[in-house]
Automatic annotation (TrEMBL):
InterPro entries noted in UniProt: NA-bd_OB-fold (IPR012340), NA-bd_OB_tRNA (IPR004365), RFA2-like (IPR040260), Rfa2/RPA32 (IPR014646), WH-like_DNA-bd_sf (IPR036388)
GO MF terms, alphabetically ordered: single-stranded DNA binding
Protein name (database record): Replication factor A protein 2
Keyword Nucleus tagged: yes
One BP annotation, GO: double-strand break repair via homologous recombination
PANTHER family listed in its UniProt record: REPLICATION PROTEIN A-RELATED, REPLICATION PROTEIN A2
A cellular-component GO term for this protein: site of double-strand break
């Protein structure tokens, strides 16, 4: 995942970041951000900034073009000229808008019902100071592993974009999180290693394995918080400490909500 590449929005090859070149007159051309496809969460879209009205949106202080996200449909409002979908991904809620196209797959569009997980590719727009996504393509998710893969891509791109802004390596927030032999960047070790005498790194690792192997998670729908609390709150000395750890793991992109706020899955 050195440079996020995705052909269209369903494969792992094809278009990726586009590098600008100089024109014949030696002057750099205007950047064409529409060909840059970035994986994002809804929260990142809602927190995207603009340096000026009608200017380019920025995430991690980088201009964004096309974005791709995965979320569940919560509401549908369709007309002859436009379809509006309200999507939620555990980090936020956003409206996406799609105009009919001659390239639409009618059967696929008809399958977009409430409660369906979908992948969306589009551009971030705003109306009345409220962000939405103008849809270029939308399709249902058939393999729940795609959700995990998407969240890993979001985390990777975010860390790659922000790590250079940090201080020296001794104080960097991007420490190593060890899960057996696999290491993932993105968790501040000073925050999670020891709290109140409890080894939270070990608890986080065991929690991830518990969720990954739980029978309720066989379809990628996650595990209810009551099962997590029953098995882990004693490990940290109480329910509140576990809630704090889970919130930290969510912030670092290692834990996320699935069908509702009470169900959790792991990204590793």
């Amino acid at each position: 995942m050195s440079n996020y590449n995705r052909g269209g929005y369903g494969s792992s090859q094809g278009q990726g970041y586009v590098q600008d070149s100089f024109g014949n007159d030696g002057a750099p051309p205007k950047k064409n951000y529409s060909h840059i496809l970035r994986p994002v969460t809804i929260k990142q879209i809602l927190e995207a900034t603009q340096t000026q009205a009608d200017g380019d949106y920025k995430i991690d202080e980088q201009d964004i073009g096309q974005v791709t996200l995965i979320a569940v449909i919560r509401n549908i409002n369709s007309s002859a000229t436009q379809s509006n979908y309200t999507l939620e991904d555990g980090t936020g809620v956003i409206d996406v808008r799609k105009f009919p196209s001659e390239h639409d797959d009618a059967e696929e569009i008809d399958s977009l019902a409430q409660g369906t997980y979908v992948r969306v590719v589009g551009m971030v727009k705003s109306f009345n100071q409220k962000q939405y996504v103008q849809v270029h393509a939308i399709r249902p998710i058939s393999d729940m592993n795609e959700i995990t893969h998407h969240n890993l891509e979001v985390l990777y791109v975010h860390v790659s974009a922000t790590r250079s802004k940090g201080a020296s390596s001794s104080s960097s927030a991007y420490g190593q999180y060890n899960n057996n032999s696999m290491q993932m960047q993105g968790v501040t070790s000073t925050d999670t290693h020891m709290r109140g005498g409890f080894d939270t790194d070990a608890v986080a690792q065991d929690l991830s394995e518990f969720i990954r192997n739980h029978p309720d998670n066989k379809n990628g729908m996650g595990v209810h918080r009551q099962h997590i609390f029953a098995n882990f709150k004693h490990r940290l000395g109480g329910e509140q400490k576990l809630i704090e750890l889970m919130a930290k793991l969510e912030d670092d992109g290692l834990l996320y909500n699935t069908e509702d706020e009470d169900h959790f899955n792991t990204t590793h």
